[in-house]
Structure formats: structure tokens, C-alpha cells
Amino acid sequence: MAQDFVGSNNINLLEPSGQFGTRLDGGKDAASPRYIFTKLKPIARKVFPEIDDVLLKYKVDDGQRIEPSYFCPVIPLILVNGSQGIGTGWSTSIPSHNPKDVLDYIKAKLESNSNLPRIRPWVRNFQGEIQLKEDKTGYISMGNIKKMSSTRVKISELPVGRWTNDYKTFLLRMRDKGEIQTFEENHTTTSVSFTITLKSVQLKRMIKSGLNKSFRLEAPLPTTNMHAFDDNFAIRKYENPENIIEAFFPIRLNLYRERKQNMERLMNYESQLLKNKSRFISDVSDGCIDIINKRKSKADTESILVQMNYDKMSHMELMKDGIEADKELECTNEFDYLLNMPLSSLTSEKFLKLTSEAKEIESKLIILQNTSPEDLWYNDLKALETYL
Description:
The chain is of the alpha+beta class. The chain folds into 4 domains: 1-41, no CATH class; 49-127 and 224-251, Topoisomerase II, domain 5 (Alpha-Beta Complex), CATH 3.90.199.10; 144-216, Gyrase A, domain 2, CATH 3.30.1360.40; 261-372, Orthogonal Bundle (Topoisomerase, domain 3). 39% of the residues lie in helices and 15% in strands. The strands form 5 sheets. A 4-stranded antiparallel β-sheet has the order 7-8-10-9, with helices on one face. Strands 5-6-11 form a 3-stranded antiparallel β-sheet, with no helix packed on it. A two-stranded antiparallel sheet has the order 1-2. β3 (83-87) and β4 (90-94) form a beta hairpin. The two termini are 17 Å apart. The model has no long low-confidence stretch (mean pLDDT 91).
């Protein structure tokens, strides 16, 4: 999740603080775990907004809440970073795609645009070419090879998933077979550079049959084995990347509906809390509630607050959780949020501040109520787009 070399992740969610591997060995040259460090990258919280954490369904292990059953990113990461592997009774091969293409596709769906953009495989910092196969069963990634002279060619890019040291082994076998004479290397951890010397007759023959095929600079990116788990943890086969987005779209959109409801309840709670506090300060200042001069018990004061229709904390907490407070609750310390306010709060400045904060939250609540779940998603996409 931290690797960022060509052919690994288009979006790495973790910071590679140390040697996490390079394209020389496809990540196998990573340092020992005790020598590397990591943390979340800033983009991680754009893909997985923190505000959604409370909406996820968490597992329980030995009485303790642990990780969610599944996360729900703003865009489907399985398309962005791809997935290849073998499981018990199934396998999968999903190419990586451009996150901007995936983002634009979702934007178009949110806008109900019938002209949806096409999503094609893409690898960050890959300098080669990715072409659709003639039978349309997938794509082919091709490296870069250029003729330098009648006896020399230069390879400056390898196909996706072909690592530098593995390709060097292949060239050594070609040299041992006499297919080439020699080669020079001038790589970095991020770039490829092979300069190959061979006989002019051999080069002409290879040009005729195709340099990419002769030097095995083509690799398939199939789309006929795109398997993944759905939200019910069942294996499904997807015919194309658009099918994955179509399956993902209603799940993520429903999460925005839940987010909106949760934010509205939270804002209502905060507004109500501030209004109760500001009203309490006003009533104490006006002498409607006497908690300073006369000696009254806490129970008597709470009884007065009930008569004056102040909101009980238990009722407001239930409203915040989306539960109707339709019955009297046998809770203690219902008005401690008022009675425990410091004496320094009983000032006109504090009253004006609380009143202003309550009005500000109510204004935000009105804006939120007029914002659709689609708009919330669109805003998250724009925030993510700035990091891309």
C-alpha cells in the first residue's frame, strides 16, 4: 500500500518512508520491515473521508469493536490500483486505471449525463503504450524500443509488470543463444535503460518481424477475468470496469444519504445545546432562574428548568442518535450541562457568543438541508481531484 514505483499503485495510501522496493525487482528489493516506517498520506483521507468513519459497520471480536466489515472509498480503489491474484477456487486480474477517468465517470453519472466517458487501463509514470487488443478481450502494454544505428537499439521502457532485473536475465539468455552480442545498462530505480548491440543482419530480421515481439516488449492486460467481492461478500465477475462502478455507485450514494442525515442530527444537537446555554445565561441574568442569591437544592433548580421547558441532555442525545425521545427517561444529571457552566460564563459576552454560534450552525444546517447526497459526493470528488 506504500509502494509507488511504476507498475505498483496509482494511488498509494501510505507514505513510503524508507526502502519499500523499486521497479528493479518489482518490490522484492524492499528493506526488512524493521528498517521502514510509514503513515497515512494526506490523500488517504480524501479517498476515505474521516466523517464517514461513524457510518461504517464495524466487526466485534471478543466484545471489542475492531475494523469495519468493509471500507467505502470515494472512488473504487480496486479499479485505480488494480488487483491480480489467486484465491481458493477463484482468481482475478483487474488492470489499474486512471483515477481521473474513474472520477470523471462518476461525475458524469451524478450529473445524469448519458454520454459517459470511457475508462481505459493506465499506469502512473508508465512511458510506454497501452493498446486495445484486436479481439477486444483486453489490452496490451508495450515498452519502448528505438533503433540507434544499424547494430544498436535502445530500450527505455518495459511492459507493465515486467521488472528490470528479470528482463536483464532474459537478455543474458539471448546473448548466450547468440541472438544479441552484448548490452549496456544505465538504469535508475525509476527508469529503464538497456542499450543492445547485435549484428546488422539480426537487427534487420527483428525489425521485419517486429522489434517489440522480438525483444518481448509486449505484455497482456486481460479483462476477461475481473472477479471481486461485492458488498454481500460474494464473488462476482465483472465484464468491464464500468460494471464495477455501476455496482459501487448505489452503495456509496446510500452512504452519502446516511452521512447527510447524521450531519443534520449532529447540527440540530449542537444548535439546541448552544441555544439552551445562551437562554440559561439570559434567564439567570434576568433573575428568572435564581442560582446565586437564594439557597435552593439541585433538585429544586432542575424542577424549575423542567417547568421552563429546557431540553434534557438524554433527550438531545437520543435526537443526535436519530431516536425519538417519546417518553420520560429516568436519567440523572439531565441539566448538568447548564448547572456546571462556570460562573465566568454568565456574562453578556458569552451570551452573544453562544447565540452567534447557534445562528451560524443553523445557517449551515439550512445549507445542508438544501444539499443533495449527490452534491456531497461531488464535493468530495472535487477535493480528491486537487490531490490528483
